[in-house]
# Entry
Amino acid sequence: MDIFAEGPELDRQWLDLSNNAWGVLHGCHDTSVVAARFVGAGWSSRSSSWYGYELETSWCQMENDPIDGPKVLLNGVVDPAHLDDLSRLLGSFGLPYELELSDEHNALVREIRG
# Structure
């Protein structure tokens, strides 16, 4: 299933930043369902591979891809000031999740489990 929606683009200040956020959403393997939930929250979404989606808003750009087991991998760029917003959105899915935020040197800054 292809989920496409136009929404806010990532602010230019985050475009050159390498990935600083990683996560796993447990209990789901259907990335289109995850993409649809992000779209429902006002994010844009576009297919990025056979099963993956790019999810974007003004403060975050993430890829979601299925991984072994009923899990979805999330990785991308997030404005650190909005990590809690991303966590609340994932928490609204009613599934366990993990999020990690790293600094520009790839040192772990913060970890959230929900």
Observations:
- The helical segments are 31-40, 83-91.
- The first strand starts at residue 21 and ends at 26.
- The chain has one domain: 12-113.
